[in-house]
Give the backbone structure.
Amino acid sequence: MTENLAANRLQSSGAYALELDGVARHFGALVALSGIDMRIAAGERRAVLGSNGAGKTTLFNAVTGDFLPTAGRIRFFGEDITDLPPHERIRRGLRRTYQISQLFKGLSVLDSIFLACRGVSRRRFSLLRPADDDVNMVQARSILEAVHLEAHRDALVATLSHGQQRQLEIALALAGAPRFILFDEPAAGLSPTERRDLVAILNALPKHIGFIIIEHDLDVALRVADYVSMMHNGHLFKEGTPQEIEADPEVQQIYLGGKHG
Amino acid sequence: MSLATAADGAAPQQNWLDRIGAGHVILAVALLLYPLVASDFFLTQIAGYSMIFGVLALSLMLLAGYGGMLSLAQITVAGIAAYAVAILGSNTSNVLGFGWPWWIVVPFAVAAAAVTSALIGWISVRTEGIYTLMITLAIATATFYFAQQNYAIFNGHSGYAGIHAPVFWGIDWRDPKPFYFLCLGLAMLSYAAVLYSSRSTFGMTLQAIRDNPRRMRALGYHVTAHKVFAWFLAGILAGLAGVLLVWFNGRVSPGTIGVDVAIDILIIAVIGGLRHPIGPFVGAIVVILMQTFAIDIVGAERFNTLIGLVFLAIVFVSPDGILGLWGRIKPHLAQGSLRAGP
């Protein structure tokens, strides 16, 4: 299993979803990221672990273009996207979710997902109401099912529970044929039941969609990821399969030990 | 996908009454029958005037309620349309007055208003909240003083007089009953259009931008373009109201677009409530009734005090205006009728 994965990763060179070469980001004197090299194959699911301030969200911001990296190159499916504005990266199939839900409180659940689907298509200025069989409406309903929110279809977003808002946050990232998604702590603040639901949702995503998940909950991260990268003080210090990471004494000392001790 | 479509098609069609809403039908019938019982004064000075200001406040509600953009420039936009009617059509001020027929003048006037509104929007969408209010106040004030001092286009302090509503199909549309129906037609159309498009793709987009512009940008939307388009649409409504306003008054002068009027429109929208397009019309009726009759109650010197107190009372009791008040009373009424039941 382990060898197979490693072999796959070597063979698929050239078919990487995401390649980071020496990506760095400084905020003044603060080094948030330094020399990050990362290769993620198409369809691969990667967990990024690390304590607060390890640079995980900064890494996401560099990939999505929310903050440009100070150094290094980023390639998305072979194309250099380092200097592209965020919306151009969205058009190429890159999506993200936010650590703190960024939703539309005054809209219904279905309408929110519909807008997310419509965002990457034309006809955004239409003054007509979308028909039930509108292509984006059909997509929105299938995403609604994928994130287990059918029962709350017409509910106002403001009335959803925190867990349901996290599910909707994922739904917005699934809109419009994503090829790769960055999940920023999707399990933050969820109950154990909601976590199980989240793991089921993530594991049921279509196989061609790869993702990176930032997660403090090791249990969630190890159950959805094929491969794990550990971050500390702005750089990667270890990569491996979930089993290797769990068993690694250094990891246990620095991350797990620190967390539990 | 074809399965899903077939299932949707098989869903029972809502009947027309459910779709329009019984309340809307009753209201429409009542408004259509109103001329049978109302005097000419109540037809035009109260109902017609309320509907014109209702549409003006509706254009503000569209921006503020759905788009989160507060504007004090709606009367300025309406004024552009009013001045355009005076300049392109006929007036008795012996200045300009191209004498074009009304069916050319009206589209030009409304287009001028909509483009002006889009321009004001384009200038002000860089700001948010109170700053949008200040920048639109600045634009309204500047336009007022420009109109007062410019004689070549705006004919200065006196403005334009002798502007007539059109006469066609053998009807003088400034006669009380026709004018009432003209106002009612515009009010109903504007209300229906705003209510319908609030659930259109654009309407939902605008509300989503109000709630979270950052996420909308991340979803691939051009936030500024959508906001400016909302200003353009609001400009069409304000422009149409401006045309009726100049036909109603028969004249337009800097006083028509003064800052006091701009504030009146804001008060109308806030008193009525910004949550639903019926709010501006409710607010307009309340404010116009007060402006008309407060003088009889407390005398000419104090009538603004009474209006101010009522405004304070409503905003104090319900930040969502009369609509919000109604929203809170309604459940109690329903409970009351349950208790009164058998």
Summary: Chain B has a mean pLDDT of 85. Chain B touches chain A at residues 1, 4-5, 8-9, 11, 196-197, 199-205, 207-208, 210-212, 214-221, 226, 229 (CB under 8 Å).
